[in-house]
Write a structure and sequence with these properties.
- The protein has one domain: 434 Repressor (Amino-terminal Domain) (Orthogonal Bundle), CATH 1.10.260.40.
- It is mainly α.
- Helix 1 crosses helix 5, helix 2 crosses helix 4 and helix 5 runs antiparallel to helix 6.
- The model has no long low-confidence stretch (mean pLDDT 82).
- The protein has seven helices and no strands.
Length: 134
């Protein structure tokens, strides 16, 4: 499960570290306690939109840039989770009809690609005439 507060915290921490700034420096500029900012960065607390805006201002970065990064990260995690589910389906070797239904359910609504399955291998039984001839 994706925890948005952790991804937001990681994005804020990465930006702060890239600027080589301390928690104390950013917390003072954002007018938030050092401990609370640390908990936000570690994903233990959820920041309000006002607090996120203040932290972004202190980091001299746009809130939309941080949220865009968070959005891309969440999309990547969701895609990885979707692929894991598809692999489980393939490993379970479900019937083509059932696995197609699961693949369709897991596919994003705007995906234009179609997942194809290899043909099922069927055992052929020899006809009675072939058995007699053998």
């Amino acid at each position: 499960m994706v925890l948005l507060r952790r991804i937001i915290g990681e994005a804020l921490r990465n930006r702060r570290r890239a600027q080589k700034r301390t928690l104390r420096d950013v917390s003072t500029a954002a007018n938030v306690s050092l401990g609370y900012l640390s908990e936000i960065e570690r994903g233990h607390k959820e920041a309000s939109s006002e607090l996120l805006a203040a932290i972004c201002h202190a980091l001299d970065t746009r809130l939309s840039d941080v949220l865009g990064e968070v959005s891309r990260t969440v999309a990547g995690v969701e895609d990885a989770q979707r692929l894991d589910k598809l692999r489980e389906v393939r490993r379970a070797r479900l019937s083509p009809v059932r696995s197609d239904a699961i693949v369709t359910a897991l596919r994003p609504r705007n995906a234009a690609t179609r997942v194809t399955h290899p043909p099922q291998r069927r055992e052929r039984h020899a006809s009675p005439e072939a058995r007699v001839a053998a």
